[in-house]
Amino acid sequence: MMGGRADGVSATTARIMELLKKPHGHYLSGQELSRHLGISRAAVWKHITALRRMGYAIEALPARGYRFSSSTCPYNALEIASGLTTKVIGRPIHFHEEVASTNEIAFTMAKESAPEGTAVVANRQSAGKGRLGRQWESPPDGGIYTSIILRPAISPREAPKLSLLAAVAVAEAVGGFLSHPPTVKWPNDLLIQGKKVAGVLAEMNAEMDRINFIVIGVGVNVNVKSGGEVFSPEVQAIATSLSAVEGVEISRVALLQALFGKVEEWYNRFLRDGFMPVREAWNRYSGMAGRRVTVRQIGAAFDGTVLGIDEDGALLVKEERGIVTRVTDGDVVVGR
Amino acid sequence: MMGGRADGVSATTARIMELLKKPHGHYLSGQELSRHLGISRAAVWKHITALRRMGYAIEALPARGYRFSSSTCPYNALEIASGLTTKVIGRPIHFHEEVASTNEIAFTMAKESAPEGTAVVANRQSAGKGRLGRQWESPPDGGIYTSIILRPAISPREAPKLSLLAAVAVAEAVGGFLSHPPTVKWPNDLLIQGKKVAGVLAEMNAEMDRINFIVIGVGVNVNVKSGGEVFSPEVQAIATSLSAVEGVEISRVALLQALFGKVEEWYNRFLRDGFMPVREAWNRYSGMAGRRVTVRQIGAAFDGTVLGIDEDGALLVKEERGIVTRVTDGDVVVGR
Q1: In CATH, which of 3.40.50.150, 3.40.710.10, 2.30.30.100, 2.60.40.10 is domain B288-334?
Q2: A153 touches chain B (CB under 8 A)
Q3: Contact in structure between B255 and B262 (CB atoms under 8 Å)
Q4: Does A156 touch chain B (CB under 8 A)?
Q5: Residue in B133, B160, B207 nearest the CB of A208
Q6: Rounded to whole angstroms, how far apart are CA atoms A154 and B299?
Q7: Of A242, A256, B122, B332, which one has the fewest beta carbons inside 10 Å?
Q8: Measuring CA to CA, which residue among A254, A262, A240 is closest to residue A180?
Q9: What are the pLDDT digits (tens) for A277-293?
């Protein structure tokens, strides 16, 4: 079995689910499973119960055994871990039905020495966080809410690079499920048709010259209806979802696996080749170059034209009077 | 009463201690105290018991009342808070007899929204932390171990400035108790006669472009014997204490009050006037300019001559071949 570890799911439980997925509509008897795995039939039953609790619709007929109808795979750690091809990212996966904020949980786990790559995934967030202390609306059942722990041996000055790296990874992962490529807005929002579909919130714990760990939080509006039923009126006007744009439901499991894959790919590239490839990809995805923007910072605001991000990840904005300003904080509003 | 709030000490308890300190050797009767404060004599007794638990040697004679012999003031929150002249720093003070690490406690409190200025003070640390994940030896009863929560509205890129600011504040506070000024070693060690007497460990929680909070941890070897009984052999060769250098015991309460005062003074100056005054003071205290040093970083080491710190707090080191390198991480070893 190619796959990662789903925290809290035993290897035997995972193996039984794997076997149940194979015969496509046929029944597997308790006796077969018991013999094949070298465990008692009572133990088989215990694992079946665990799988049902995880959301798998498993039928049991006394004379025939167990059957899984594969059209209804749930969203859980086992599904995400099955077939995951990463070496570090998403190993292990900690899945929660509902949390206040996946970033909070990952932050606490990282403080308690969780290894690099550990991912927290939640089906729902009750207090999702956005940049600068803002809220991130997390409608139930339709979004991806995940936070990944990284422990790069870099200085806090370099941390913004990882946030931009994450934006590129999200753009590539999401792009694979769309008929048109998404665009990245500085620093790390993902837009489709000018509306937000995903965002990154990176938070770190650091000494002055060394990052202890960084938590990369990603929120993606996947199968969220863009109407007023799920988003608040303010958010409705500026946000959309992948399903609303494409007109089809998208598998959160498949998208999350792609996301973990892209984060790993880009993180390894960054560690090996530095920030330049990330910078090039970000500038390619951003489509911000040449756009007129308004930069809003604490106590300051100015207009200018975007040149791109520089080698440190700062946004270069050329003001009217010709001066090029490096923007490292605040908000950037793109003009029409 | 001029002073700050000692967390966990009631205002009445504090007031009674204040009254007991006044008559210098005379007794105050329970009746007098009870009348003066408008509380029962049983309540007076409860407060006396609380004060005794805090380490105050209070005598009680049935016929005469209570007496405090002022030569034996303990090290506790009430003593530190009494006479504290700061507005923000050390308000309130959370005092602990022993903790693993004051930085850990302050970090957790900051996560739980403790206000700017909150200070954690411990008499002992069982797992004191130094820079870059190293240990900080914290011999019992002789040192100052404190961590202060700050919430400056600055970017993580600017965080090293606060660490250097803390080094300047520690140098000035400690310098007030010494016959010769101490020197600061990059980034934030305090040396006397080439041996370490104090250190700063600043840790932050941050988004990519915004500090949520920063914890400034300060350790000072005050009345620690510099012999092998208290420091490990490795540390003995490179560390000393204020009392060992000056030949007298120094009041930890007075030094901590001075430290809080200096941190507040420099922090306000930084918020008002920026980093330039800190930079000038640091360069003045460092005595590193012109010194030959070896810089040791991950995967790199080079020799050069120190020029000072620049406007971002990086150490400028001029290499043989004339190139000036900005050092922002790693260790700097000063040559003889």
Answers
A1: 2.30.30.100
A2: yes
A3: no
A4: yes
A5: B160
A6: 12
A7: B332
A8: A240
A9: 999 999 999 888 888 99
CA atoms of A56 and A238, how far apart (whole Å): 35
Look at the domain B84-285 and name its fold: BirA Bifunctional Protein; domain 2 (3.30.930)
Distance, in Å, from the CA atom of A142 to the CA atom of B289, rounded to the nearest integer, reads 60
Q: Find tokens 């029944």 and name the residue.
A: A27
Domains B11-72 and B288-334 share a fold: no
| Mean pLDDT score, A30-45 | 92
A155 contact residues in B (CB cutoff 8 A)? 328-329
Minimum-distance CB partner of B207 among A202, A208, A210: A202
Q: What ipTM goes with this model?
A: 0.76
Distances (CA, A) of A47 to A35, A96, B252: 15, 19, 61
Q: Is A314 part of the contact surface with chain B (CB cutoff 8 Å)?
A: no
Whether residue A1 is predicted with pLDDT greater than 50 in this model: the reply is no
B187 vs B138: which has the higher pLDDT? B187
Token pair 């507005």 in the structure block, residue: B87
Per CB-CB distance under 8 Å, the chain A contacts of B330 are: 209
- Does any CB of chain B come closer than 8 Å to the CB of residue A328? yes
> Looking at A24-33, A35-44, A195-204, which range is the least confident one?
A24-33
Helix, strand, coil abundance in chain A, percent, nearest 5 = 35, 30, 35
Ranges of each domain in chain A: 11-72, 84-285, 288-334
Q: Yes or no: is domain B11-72 CATH 3.40.50.300?
A: no
Does B100 contact chain A (CB < 8 Å)? no
How many angstroms separate the Cα of B109 from the Cα of each of A225, B87, B106, B219?
39, 20, 5, 19
Under the banding of pLDDT at 50, 70 and 90, the label for residue A334 is confident
